[in-house]
Amino acid sequence: MFPIFGAMKPMRAKKIFLYFVLFLLTIPIGMATRLYPNYFPDLIRIYGGDVLYATCLFFFLRFLFPVTELVKLGILSFLACIIIELQQLYKASWIVHLRHTFPFGLILGYDFALSDCICYAIGCLLGMSIALLLERSWALGR
């Protein structure tokens, strides 16, 4: 059973809501790096979407599992990204056609790249760092 159901303490409800908002905000920022590449420096244009993809997945998992340790969610996010990246090596015609549709192309990607794996690690670390800073400030009552 997901912890988002049932009676919750106010802090847990605030935490869950915040991670859902972070998840929703990360999506358009990541998509902007793909849809409007001319507005970003080369480094962000090339790698920013992959970093934010992993960060977005981390925030989504934190939303679903707010009491799970940050490191466990970071590892789970990274492994999920790696599995999605590895499936890009599978080149059956039906999945290649599926990948060339807009929503599935964003979710599944197009071609395997080792640099994407590095971006996913950075994105998971970014998500974990943001979560750690937020949760430390809550614990200190700021």
Task: Please characterize this protein's 3D structure.
The protein is mostly helical and 142 residues long. It has one domain. It contains six helices and no strands. The relative contact order is 0.15.
| Secondary structure tally: strands | 0
Beta-strand percentage? under 5%
Poorly predicted ranges:
none
The secondary-structure element order is HHHHHH
Number of domains: 1
Amount of helix: over 70%
Largest sheet: none
Q: Residue-averaged pLDDT, rounded?
A: 91
Keywords: Membrane, Transmembrane, Transmembrane helix
Organism: Chitinophaga filiformis (Myxococcus filiformis)
InterPro entries: DUF2809
Protein name: DUF2809 domain-containing protein
Keywords, please?
142 residues, mainly alpha
Helix and strand topology:
Blueprint: H1 10-35, H2 42-64, H3 70-86, H4 93-99, H5 102-108, H6 114-139
Helix pairs in contact: 1-2, 2-3, 2-6, 3-6
Concise description?
Keywords: Membrane, Transmembrane, Transmembrane helix. The chain is mostly helical and 142 residues long.
